[in-house]
Amino acid sequence: QKINQLYVNSYKASSIMAEYVLDKGYKDIFIIGGSLENADAELRKQAFIDTAGGKGVQFIEQRYINGRFCEQGGYEAVKTVFEIEPEFRGVLFCLNDAMAIGALRALGELGLHCPEDIKVTGFDDVFQAKFTNPALTTIRFPLSDMGYEAVRVIYKILKGELRQYFRKEFSHQLIIRSSC
After folding, report:
1. Per the confidence metrics, is the pTM higher than 0.85?
2. For 67, which of 32, 63, 137, 165 could close a Cys bridge (C-beta 3.0–4.6 Å)?
């Protein structure tokens, strides 16, 4: 493609989180994601499905709830999960930290405890993730490094120093905390 790209491989990152969850023996899972018209939502969901399938775990499509990639959406999605399955006691595999933070709030209101009753995972490792109660298990992206590099690339483009298309993949890391 003829565009400059700074990115993290969402598919690989989601596969790592899925592997972590599944290797712990958890198989009762809802995915809280965004609209599947969003490329990251689709990649992260597909990575989970592929990883689960590789481990003999079938994912049920009705267990994907659109949380709109925001706290309120995550909160509402969890309320929907418990309308569908009031006895659910598994993992909420949230495709970003904002939704996971909303999910934790909804669980508290429902009288459920994380990680005792429900496990919760996130994505991005936003600043607040380590301060949630419990601290959020997530995938860390180097957001500040990515922002710095984006500004640097824009500056070089504006100065005419960057004439070829630029593509850089940043690393990601599983951050295990107490929510899962």
Report:
1. yes
2. 32
